[in-house]
Amino acid sequence: MLLEIASSITGSNQEMSDDQLMEIVYRGLKLRRFLIVIDDIWSTEAWDQMQRIFPNDDNRSRILLTTRLKYVADYVSCPDFPPHSKSFLSPDDSWNLFTEKLFKKDQCPPLLVEIGKHIVQQCQGLPLSIVVVAGLLGKMDLTHDNWKKVEENLNSFFGTVSERCQSILSLSYNYLPQYLRACFLYIGGFPEDREINVSKLIRLWIAEQFIKARSNERLEVVAEEYLQELIDRSLILTGKQRANGRIETCKIHDLLRQLCLSAVHTENIVYYMYGDVLVSLLEVIHDQRRVIGLHKHEEKQVYHPTYINDITIQAA
């Protein structure tokens, strides 16, 4: 970022030390009115270092930050400019973003509107997913037949979308403290599009010993703090709330659930098994700590593990 700003000031891409770049940026912006946009900042320490290079001349200059972490947003905000939380896009806003990315200033051909809206609907209002979908569709001829094939094979198509998004979403997991990782991955064991009862989830976390005891605090209270931290990190969504403001249910976006499914293979915490595959895999992981996400398959058969140390999440 420093190099980009310094280059815009000097017109040169010459390599320099960080201290030299900081001085160039500071001197170049001094007494000038500027707007700086910093995308995806991950720590308060990073902000403390960066803000030193921007002069404060009280001339209505602005610095716009984006972050996935609520505590970072709270830290850098001020009373006149509180943090602005972005929600998922509405169907209309989703469609507008999609057409803007794919067609620029042109209109979507009328023959593609109905199919296009159905495809965009699968993004569930997530801007990242919508942008990726627009990019993928932009690589094929914009014909009704091509889009119809995509509509008829949405699972395959959105598998590709998910892969493109994972490299970006995985940053959220990589920056997750160790004590929260097991709790987050555990949520991936619940079925898609399911509102998860928070009381049940907390009991399961505690049973699995994912919650670290603190002096003078009940495990249930600590678990609620863990859940709130996952929400503040934009990894878990709030569902229903009780009259007293406490969270009754939570849920996870499909793309983040896919992130869980890909991460569990390296963490040895959660195993998702379907049908009779469960039996053979249980034999393989007999000596490992595990949580089993147990789902009914098409024949509605349910396989019950025989090991009493397993925690089973059974899909309804």
TrEMBL record:
GO terms for biological process: defense response to other organism. It is a peripheral membrane protein. Gene3D superfamilies: Helical domain of apoptotic protease-activating factors (1.10.8.430), P-loop containing nucleotide triphosphate hydrolases (3.40.50.300), Winged helix-like DNA-binding domain superfamily/Winged helix DNA-binding domain (1.10.10.10). GO terms for molecular function: ADP binding; ATP binding. It is found in: Cytoplasm; Membrane. GO terms for cellular component: cytoplasm; membrane. Its main location: cytoplasm. Keywords: ATP-binding, Coiled coil, Cytoplasm, Leucine-rich repeat, Membrane, Nucleotide-binding, Plant defense, Repeat. InterPro entries: Apaf_helical, Disease_R_plants, NB-ARC, P-loop_NTPase, WH-like_DNA-bd_sf, WHD_DRP. Residues 190-259 form the Disease resistance protein winged helix domain. Residues 12-107 form the NB-ARC domain. Pfam families: NB-ARC, WHD_DRP. Belongs to the disease resistance NB-LRR family. This is Uncharacterized protein. It comes from Solanum pinnatisectum (tansyleaf nightshade).
